[in-house]
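G., the chain you wanted modeled:
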Amino acid sequence: MSSQLPPGTKLGRYEIRSLIGAGGMGEVYRARDLKLSRDVAVKVLPAAFSSDAGRLQRFEQEAQAAGALNHPNILTVYDVGTHEGAPYVISELLEGETLRDVLSAGPVSPRKSIHYATSIAHGLAAAHERGIVHRDLKPDNLFVTTDDRIKILDFGLAKLVQPSNLAIVQTEIATLKVNTSAGTVMGTVGYMSPEQVRGERVDHRSDIFSFGAVLYELLSGRRAFHADSPVESLNAILRHEPEDLTSTDARINPQLDKILRRCLEKKPERRFQSASDLSFALEALTATSEPLSSTQSLRHVQREFKATAWLPWVLAGAMLIAALVLGWLYFGRTTNNEFRPAKLMILPPANTFLMAGQPPVISPDGQTLVFVAMDPSGKSMLYARPLGSDVARPLEGSDGAVLPFWSPDSTKLGFFAQGKLKRTNVAGGQPTTLASAPVPRGGTWSRDGIIIYCPTPPSTLMRIPAEGGPPTPLNTGGTDQVAVGRWLPFFLPDGRHFLYVTRRVHEVRVGSIDSTDSKLIVRAESNAVFVNPGYLFYRRESKLVARRFDPDKLELKGDAIPLADNVGFDAVSLQGYFSGSDNGVVVYHSGAAGHTQLTWLDRTGKQISIVGDPADQGDLQLSPDDSRVAFRRVDSQSTTINLWLMDLARVNASRFTFEQTTDFAPVWSSDGNRIVFASLRDGSPNLYQKVATGAGNEEPFLKSSLAKVPFDWSRDGKFIIYGVIDPKTSWDLWFVPVADLSKAAPFLQTDADELQAQFSPDGHWVAYVSNESGHSEVYVRPFPTAAGKWQVSTDGGIQPRWRADGKELFYLASDHKLMSVEVIANSSNFDHRSPTALFSTRVGGIDSPGDYYAVTSDGKRFILNNLVAEGAYTPITVVLNWGSELKR
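Predicted structure as tokens:
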């Protein structure tokens, strides 16, 4: 179906006459019902979006939710159907304009505002009684007919919920799940309730807050919560109160202002508890606002006189009550001067969003918050936000930074970027590079000036002086260290012992820089941190929990205490989105970790379509015929990582591996019949294989004592090139003849890190990534001799990919742009042109070996693993003096 239906098109018994308008949820047409001889409105979801299951589900939900309602203030739905695969809904045709159009002329008079508001409240009450919450109430979704009636439109974000009263009010619509888990923001900036902004579950009281925002705009002509950017607007919803209207407009009844303020309460329990109560209050206000008759005026004067006569007694009683209350407050108050816990909500700077997989970290002195944020171009940096300031400042030289950690004196930060461990002063200045860390898994800084860190999985932990020097292995936990991996270390107060997490068995253990011994502390979903006054924080069953911990005896005590629901974590690294200070400040973020959306783009960066639903996924590999994509996906319930396959024509994803372990880095055989992948089922990563149809079991392919990850399978099917993590040389490139696995041999083995290798289509060349220059660049060498070298990228590059004819090479630049390089090569000579940028991307960090994109054989289409920015508007929560709540 074309993007627009021409006049005369028939959708069943409905004939299209003209286009009325278009929006994110579809196009709206005027049409004629040929059977009943009446004009109707037809809303059609464009065919370009009909493959989007989430959008299609919301469209169907809009039709069903609205169709279940029959109320004069709600748009009437007549029929639903499909046309050439695109669904449509038939509704009454309205004549008039949206409330947004009305407001373009300025504020509405108080009398008419009350009239409109009462009608909206009646419509909401009818919907709420049927268990339907709108969740996107705004002037654009409110229609003023030519006879001045209000109609509520667009239940596309509605959610069916259990009715709040005791009566069983059941709609016949099957409940359709909409993503409302914590960390997901749905609605429109400026009209969302605080609970929507925080990504929490919402009920009918969220609509009441949005109603208050609409009423404020009716009365004032300006938005209640509006700033220079969406992020600042959302921050205003959480923290600020709109300007008082009665001080600027004497026509506004103070009682109306009270109703408005009650709708805009930050906490749902302080708002009107039903739209029915709200409409009653508005109707009562309307009644008291009518002019008084002469008889009513006389009675009113008499009541005023009687009230005045009793005024001295009323004042005396009030003074007595006030004295009693003050006495109780003074003599009955506790002598404990502790403050109750307080929460702050902090959003990233304008035009940025919080980086998935990265924790917010609070300084040990509890004064400064640091987090990683990304701008729309894909550039990520560290930002420092003093809690006493409204401004977050980018840290110089922190481009591409991940996994920041504080020095004990709160003046410096350690972090990882461009495959290196770095140190910087928070006050300013360029960072200092300390050591190589191609795929980092966290670091920690002791009070004695020692940093321990994991440079790449599953290598041993390393130690290095914070001021610089040669790194040395930290032998903790005996010979099993590499097998299970020691990640995300965290020093305890004594500066000798530290916590860490094991990837394979999900254990939090404690080790020592003085000993090879280690001790199991707790099984957890994430890493753990120590927070004063003597607790371990970790993630369990999606909750952030605190449990008493004795750092001297290295023992847990008592039960775990839940602190927050749906706190985020990265299921790949087990990094939890939380941290704590030495003086009782705790921060956490509930954003979904690593959620990405597979998206087709053309060579200009124009979106062709989206593929499937957002998920925590990665390692994209297209089949040789471009019909299927293999990728890894995280099971959010078990935190295991398995491989999945998707048929791109049917957009049908199915699980490919089933072990309760971590499988990743799939590589297709040249005929598309087999897939080789890395797996942690043996502890250290080894290579396994499986038939691409899914039949049969996963079988060992190549096993040895060294960790390994496959990168590519030559087009002639003869060789696989893979990465090996050698304790002496870190990442090296090896290759193995498929016909004789005993002849595995190194291809490139240096002191630098070499990874992400790709065979040229003719098999004579290998493109790969190395950090030999100090940061990641793309190089090409001949295969199999590796004699000679050409640098292809010019300003950083990762993830090279060849076009099927070998005449073009693609890669991701350090600024996240997808680059193209023309190649002129044959079996003995290699040459190339200067790189050119095709388009910017929104993929993740560049310090991971995971693949963020794949290119079709003809080089005309790209499937990207774009970060989902819906977690962008989920603020970081800062809890002050959290420990006092435990004492209570």
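The two ends are 64 Å apart (CA to CA).

Shout if anything looks off.
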